[in-house]
Amino acid sequence: MFHKQSHLYKSNDMAATFAFLKDVRPFKTAWKVQVKVIHSWRQNTENTVETLELVLSDSMSKQIHAPVLNLSKVIDESNQTDSHSEFGTSSCSSGINAEIEFNLGRGRAKNTMAVNLTAEAIAKMLNGEVASENDMTPVLQVTELKMIQSKLNQNHESSNRYKITLSDGILSQQGMLNASLNSLVVQGSIQLGSILKLTRFVCNRVQTRRIVVVADVEILVEKCDIIGTCVQSGSPNEPGRSSVFDQQRSGMGSVITQQSNGCGFEQQQAKRTDLNGGRYGASAYSPQPQVVHNSPDAVRYSVSANLPQPQVVHNSSEVGRYGLPANSPQPQVAHNSSDAGRYGGANLAQPQVGYNSSDAGRYGVPASSPQRQVGQRYGTGSGYSETSPSTRPYGSSNAGYGGSRLEQPRAPPATTAYSRPVQSSYQPQPPPMYVNRGPVARNEAPPRITPISALNPYQGRWTIKVRVTCKGVLRRFSNTRGEGKLFSFDLLDSGGGEIRVTCFNDVVDQFFDQIVVGNVYLISRGSLKPAQKNFNHLHNDYEIHLDSASTIQQCYEDDPTIPRHQFHFRNVGDIENMESNSITDLIGIVSSISPSVSIMRKNQTEVLKRSLQLKDMSGRSVEFTMWGDFCNAEGQKLQMLCDSGASPVLAVKAGRISEFNGKQVSTIGSSQLFIEPDFPEARELREWYDREGRNAHFTSISREFTGAGRQEVRKVITQIKDDKLGTSEKPDWITVCATISFMKVENFCYTACPNMNGDRPCSKKVTNNGDGTWRCEKCDKSVEECDYRYILQIQLQDHTGLTWATAFQEAGEEIIGISAKDLYYIKYEHQEEEKFEDIIRSVTFSKYIFKLKIKEETYSDEQRVKATVVKAEKINYSSDTRFMLEAMDKLRTGDANSLPVKLESSNYRSDALNSGIGTSGTRDTASVDARREFGLPAANQVGQYGNQYAGPISGITSCNACGSNGHVSANCPSLMSEPQGQYTQGRYTGGGTPRQHVGGY
Amino acid sequence: MDTSSPSAFVNGALLRRYIGQKVRTVIQVIGSDTGSVVGKSTDDLQIVVRGPSTTPPLTTYLEVIGIAESDNSIRAETWTNFGNTFDPQNYNELCKLASGEFKHLFI
């Protein structure tokens, strides 16, 4: 890190021998290296100190990173990249690996004692924070000293006063020495360069400026090079320095800026200049070539071989202002664009200077230059006011300045393009200098960082300091207004505020490449729009839309106060009760992972999918599904970890809860996965898992394996009463394996309205008009022919007991085997009583698997639990046997879960089921309900059941080998060596098998 | 019901326990010869069933009740076609249960 005592030389000043960078070590002082600046940028740190960050390379191609804290050493970035420069510093410290940091302010100048100027003292004086010695006793350096003769009383010695300019190395401040100190000046104790501790002083405001009146000092160092801005004696710039002092018209301090564009160093002296008003006002018009107002060290650094004269360079923007031809040979005062704002302020205060008063405007204007940035930067400065120069704190200068930042990668391309060519084309042109009086419109206040949480749409200007946590892909869209593209990224700040930024079209080009996940940026300007909650799950009601006037500036120094990620973890147990499609963060132990499979999407594209089981301290587990690229990157890593026997911790940022097969969590585009992350939650989880979680039993809120088949809870009939099924708010859904022991054959069906209502028949009861037509109350129509629908009252019996149940149309058909209409005709139209009885007999005493809906209904103040058959399936003895074998197996191995257990009806979402049908005027409300259920596709219900009765709780297991249900892998047909073709689960029905004796006795 | 001579449910492996006793099993027919049928037991062992020649056609699965002659042969008394779809796994499990833990219920 360069500090005030560091020296930067032009490469044409080749006197010394140079060390190589590899030889530069901490604690080694007084070395010199010759390096090339290969990269540089500016950076604002949290406390508003701006540094210039350089990457230097020497002739051996060794690179080093060198932050420059003292901005007096600012380098013109527009040129430095190809310049050969030589840097030397007097000290350095803390070199690690390839990076050596030059330490700031702790080194000592070669010829001074170890004295540190008080950092920011001047800034504090300027802004009024320090008004007297009571606030601070700053150590400052005298950079100017001039005797003033008092006109009032010329005869008295005491009327001689010394005007003094004090510097803290960065800013300077004018002041007067109390007459009592004159003797010190006379005897040489206070001279140019002396370092003083102000033990008694007062900061006064005189007109628009502040003057420090020094009453008493402690002299720390009598003789010293001027720190920070000093001029090397013997440097070729000497003339420049003298001119500075000669030029003084107003007698104020001198400081300046200068730009040696040719050499690649830009002098960014801004701070020192602002108080030195008026000096150059005249010179601006002066035909004299000498007007170089270089600050001492500006001179030093600017020294360029190609500039034979100490005069300097001029920025294009001034051409217009002064009306000079662009290539005017007229020597003029150097002017640095980066000082624009500052000088602009001065100009306002000093209209006599004669040129355009608004520097900002001037700079914004350059015809050829789309230098948006300048204007905009001005805009960002906050807290700056015309009348209070004091508001500009030290170190902030560039907050608002485009000058040297134009090169920064974040600058819009146009701006970048501008700065280089323009500057070079006007290179040798001597710039005029303007006056700095009271700064007026400066814009260099540090960007005041607004917390994300404070952003709102009514705020014009703000700057946030944020870390990019997530960056979306560039997407293209087309709408009525044409094609477009957009991308978005998510931000997090140190206050934990989150917000999404969206860029459209051109702005995408501007910023897309710049945004890198994990980096810290200063982002200014942009409009706040209500967040699009469909796409944006962040906890913020707004999102930012950037436009071309927005700036994004990278902070190369990481800010540890901004977390890398922010999680709002919910445990798996909570997720069970969260709404589907909501976004959550989740952390858990991966207990198993399945390989990637390719899924064909509806739009005929294939996508990879990989599922894993996550469990956490809530004792629940959930299926987590990765889609797309996650399967390969994170998925592969997890697979490897799991294969090696580990149970990795996985943190999921922004997963979406879905309700496919129970609750699941799956990735979305902006999800992020962290494997074995290092943060407290993960450590806690790991600890818990190692301690107890490993052996704990988990209940899944997902169905772990999909597969067709029965996934419902098998119950026995007495459990309907014993478990008080149906008495909770929602119906209970069970299956029983039972025999139809009785069936009411009267009124097995009713006459129904066949009118189509939407895509399904009305099905309300119709009444006979007596004339052969049927009237439907609901449709208010009569029809020639009515429909017949089942309403079967049946008695079910299993080994535990009996229950009544009602089977409506579809279930009735499943039970009877023919439609209600056919059966009606057999019985009533054709009077085939025998046939009818055969049919009924064939059904009674047959065993079915019934899916029942159990719900308590109220009839005339009487509570009755109604059972409605939703689905009836002739028993498949083979699969039912397997089911029983498994149940026995579990029973014997003592797994209590294999027994039918109580339903958790709260988990069941019946709403979905009720959406469908609902018409029909049947006799009672129960039947209406039942009908609704009936109309739904069975698959739907299967899915529903699956949600709830997943996993071990149901006692129904899934085969690991073939994925189907109803058997465990030990019994899986796919693993058996029997010829597979013989057995098909669906085909075999016990009753129907031919069983014939072949021989025997 | 004649309970004096119950027939034990066996698969191929259990057969040897009941040599000289009455057993019943289901085989998948592999081939038939005069006076014998070769089949595969539900636990995938080969069993030869001898006895009065059967009346074709045989279905894929065949239940045989008879006396266990050796650990892989049965002298059949009763043949029953069991159809072409049969779940040998379930039957195998039944055999194991009926000769093991729940033997008391069967014999």
UniProtKB/TrEMBL annotation, chain A:
Gene name of the encoded protein: LOC104771762
Start and end residues of each stretch annotated as Disordered: 319-435
Self-association and partners: Heterotrimer of RPA1, RPA2 and RPA3 (canonical replication protein A complex).
Protein name: Replication protein A subunit
Predominant location: nucleus
Keywords: DNA damage, DNA recombination, DNA repair, DNA replication, DNA-binding, Metal-binding, Nucleus, Zinc, Zinc-finger
Lineage: Eukaryota, Viridiplantae, Streptophyta, Embryophyta, Tracheophyta
Annotated NCBIfam families: rpa1
InterPro entries assigned to the protein according to its UniProt record, in alphabetical order: Euk_RPA1_DBD_C, NA-bd_OB-fold, NA-bd_OB_tRNA, Rep_factor-A_C, Rep_factor-A_N, REPA_OB_2, Rfa1, RFA1B/D_OB_1st
Signal sequence coordinates: none
Subcellular location: Nucleus
Protein family: Belongs to the replication factor A protein 1 family.
PROSITE patterns attached to this UniProt entry: ZF_CCHC
Biased composition (Low complexity): 418-427
Keyword field contains Metal-binding: yes
Superkingdom of origin organism: Eukaryota
Main function: Component of the replication protein A complex (RPA) required for DNA recombination, repair and replication. The activity of RPA is mediated by single-stranded DNA binding and protein interactions. Probably involved in repair of double-strand DNA breaks (DSBs) induced by genotoxic stresses.
CCHC-type domain segment(s): 959-974
UniProt organism field: Camelina sativa (False flax)
Automatic annotation (TrEMBL), chain B:
CDD domains on file: RPA3 (cd04479)
Pfam family, one: Rep_fac-A_3
InterPro entries: NA-bd_OB-fold, Rfa2
Key words, A-Z: Nucleus
Origin superkingdom: Eukaryota
Annotated organism of origin: Camelina sativa (False flax)
Protein name stated in the entry: Replication protein A 14 kDa subunit A-like
SUPFAM superfamilies linked: Nucleic acid-binding proteins
Locations listed in the record: Nucleus
Annotated family: Belongs to the replication factor A protein 3 family.
